[in-house]
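Q: what sequence does this backbone want?
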């Protein structure tokens, strides 16, 4: 059976969580005392919020005294409210002192729904602790914020993302090239869920993961194709350059936006003088502006290429 790597490699213990050192340390303090307050986990997706909540529950040995709900549940806020009440109103099982309700995407709740949640939190404060996950703490009403201890989860840095990818690569017996790892980091922006999904998609194409495999997965042009495109245009072989452009945009489906960015970074690698690089960058800037303003990207990119020759 195909296992999703975001689950397979999800840390089971707080100690295994990458980055987030301060957050994890504070959280461990609560867990060791076997007493946690209501918690508010804030940060972008894929930074370890759900992982930290699960690991805490496991270390608190709460077993059945735990449920996980998603606030953006399509069945509506009433379903969530009923579920919370049903779960919260009975005493914790075994000798546990409290139950834990993990509410994912809490910032998806309307202000009214949050008011209702606040009343529920108050009503069951003796037997229940809430862990609220959200992207933006500013979207959580103040009365809830003041009932919670807040933890901020930061986007993971390059070293941490690479370390995590290495761990998976080892577990899956993949060869992961340094450049490939770097391009995953650039694309994921510190979101480990996204990073893991890109790696899994790449591995389904090739176990030997080089940069090109990643670029293919994320729908970007290969570095050498960009160089070829620019060189053809610089040499005045406009029709060939145009063919290459069509191949990239139409056959390979690279978006104009990505292509402009890739051309921008590709210019630095060209074997031309710095003065020429500057000229080309200025030119690209003009065309990029027109695309942003709404001009046809294909025509603008063609015109850019046509203007490259001295
Ligand atoms: N700080 C982290 N340390 C280790 N793994 C992480 C971390 N952050 C995210 N992940 C990984 O990314 C995936 C999503 O993590 P999750 O905790 O669900 O993110 P969030 O709840 O912040 O959106 C999981 O596979 C998890 O293993
Ligand atoms: Mg989550």
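A:
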């Amino acid at each position: 059976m195909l296992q999703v790597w975001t689950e397979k490699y999800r840390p089971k213990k707080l100690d295994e969580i990458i980055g987030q050192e301060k957050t994890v340390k504070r959280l461990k303090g609560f867990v060791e005392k076997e007493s946690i307050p209501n918690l508010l986990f804030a940060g972008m997706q894929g930074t370890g919020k759900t992982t930290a909540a699960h690991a805490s529950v496991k270390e608190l040995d709460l077993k059945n005294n735990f449920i996980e709900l998603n606030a953006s549940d399509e069945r509506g806020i009433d379903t969530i409210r009923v579920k919370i009440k049903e779960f919260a109103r009975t005493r914790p099982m075994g000798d546990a002192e409290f139950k834990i309700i993990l509410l994912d995407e809490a910032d998806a709740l309307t202000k009214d729904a949050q008011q209702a949640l606040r009343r529920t939190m108050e009503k069951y404060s003796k037997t229940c602790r809430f862990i609220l996950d959200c992207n933006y703490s500013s979207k959580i009403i103040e009365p809830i914020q003041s009932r919670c201890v807040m933890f901020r989860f930061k986007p993971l840095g390059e070293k941490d993302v690479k370390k995590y990818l290495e761990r998976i690569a080892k577990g899956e017996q993949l060869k992961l090239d340094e450049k490939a790892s770097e391009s995953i980091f650039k694309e994921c922006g510190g979101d480990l869920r996204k990073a893991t999904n890109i790696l899994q998609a790449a591995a389904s194409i090739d176990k030997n993961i080089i940069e090109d495999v990643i670029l293919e997965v994320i729908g970007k042009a290969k570095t050498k194709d960009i160089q070829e495109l620019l060189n053809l245009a610089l040499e005045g072989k406009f029709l060939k350059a145009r063919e290459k452009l069509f191949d990239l945009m139409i056959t390979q489906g690279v978006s104009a936006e990505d292509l402009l960015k890739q051309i921008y970074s590709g210019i630095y690698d060209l074997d031309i003088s710095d003065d020429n690089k500057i000229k080309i960058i200025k030119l690209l800037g003009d065309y990029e502006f027109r695309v942003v303003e709404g001009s046809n990207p294909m025509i603008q990119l063609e015109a850019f290429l046509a203007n490259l020759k001295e």
